[in-house]
Amino acid sequence: MSAEAAPKSGIQWTIEADGHRAVLTEVGGTLRSYSVDGVEVLDGFGTDEIAPGSAGQILAPWPNRIRDGRYEFEGTSYQLALTEPARHNAIHGLVNWSRWRLAEQSAGAVTLEYDLPAQVGYPWSLVLRSHWSVSADGLRCVQEVVNTSGANAPWGFSVHPYLRLAGVSVDDTVLRVPARLRITADNRLLPLGASKVAGTEYDYNEPRRIGSAVLDTTYGEIEFDAEGITAVTLSSPEGGEIVVWADDKFKYWQVFTGDTLHGERHRRSVAVEPMTCPPDAFRSGRDLVVLEPGQTWATTWGIRA
After folding, report:
1. 20-24: long-range pairs with CB below 8 Å, 24+
2. I need a surface site. Which of 87, 129, 273, 299 has the fewest CB within 10 A?
3. For a pLDDT cut of 70, what percent of the chain falls above it?
4. How many CB atoms lie within 10 A of CB 117?
């Protein structure tokens, strides 16, 4: 394929099994599409589109935002590029616009890799591996990272799928988020503190309709089942359901109703993002993972529909 003919999202890798089909892209190692029996579960994007609103992207080595792109780690200060200039933040990490490579592929599974080089603001090298698979149980992703540098490295991880129940508006979507608190945020969407959700407009411990609620909210103190799994559920009044689940490495959920997106994507779907750490964790240190030299770290999440 010539450079002129390449779609904006790069090479496409399709995996299929038991009526489940997913498409991953070279740019960002992004989950562009996921469907079950021909019905799209994600609010994805076209092959020749730039992922809108970070749709389907991997967010690493930090999720969400870092205030002013500036942080201190083990006694040294660092400055990242401000990739959200309007709010003067560094947002969504360093791997979501890079070209990933194919490591392995079969009919129902694919492994993509990316070597993150040491750079200004993040002087550690990492190797990221995303193992994607589909089956009758749904979509599953095992995310691995190896610290290939000679020093401890700060690490956080998230993914950014937008989910859409066929024929159901965001207002009519029934949401359940198993969490006891939310992180309060300023107008730059950076943490101010935390408050209990019980009995408030942010309480979705019992499933209820989103209605006119505007959410770009980080939930913490989340609930895990006996097997160490947490899950956010979107459902329709008619009984359709989408579940995003994650293992116990994830301590937070971010739920976004798409109100700041433009055009036809405005409030069209709900982003449900499992996060290992909260916004600004590089500064606060809260639930920040420290990768030792040579250490391999892994976590698993997925979607059932």
Report:
1. 20/134, 20/135, 20/136, 20/138, 20/139, 21/134, 22/132, 22/134, 22/139, 24/110, 24/112, 24/130, 24/132
2. 87
3. 98
4. 13
DSSP-assigned letters across all residues of the chain: --TTT--TT-SEEEEEETTEEEEEESBTT-EEEEEETTEE-B----TTS--GGGTTEEEBSS-SEEETTEEEETTEEEE---SBGGGTEEESBSSTTSBPEEEEEETTEEEEEEEE--BTTB---EEEEEEEEEETTEEEEEEEEEE-SSS-EEE--EEE-EE--TT--TTT-EEE--EEEEEEE-TTS-EEEEEE-TTSTT--SS-EE-TT---EEEEEEE---TTS-EEEEEE-TTS-EEEEEE-TT--EEEEE--TT--GGGTTSSEEEEEESS-TTHHHH-TT-EEEPTT-EEEEEEEEE-
Task: Name the nearest CA neighbour of 176 among 201, 210, 146, 153.
Answer: 210
pLDDT at 238: 86
User: Tokens representing 44?
Assistant: 């994805």
| Overall average pLDDT of the 234-239 stretch | 92
The answer, yes or no, to whether residue 12 has pLDDT greater than 80, is yes
Give me 50's structure tokens.
């730039």
What domains can be seen in the chain, in order of their start residue?
Answer: 12-304 (2.70.98.10)
pLDDT at 3 over 80: no
Q: Give residue-wise pLDDT tens across range 167-202.
A: 999 999 999 999 999 999 999 999 999 999 999 999
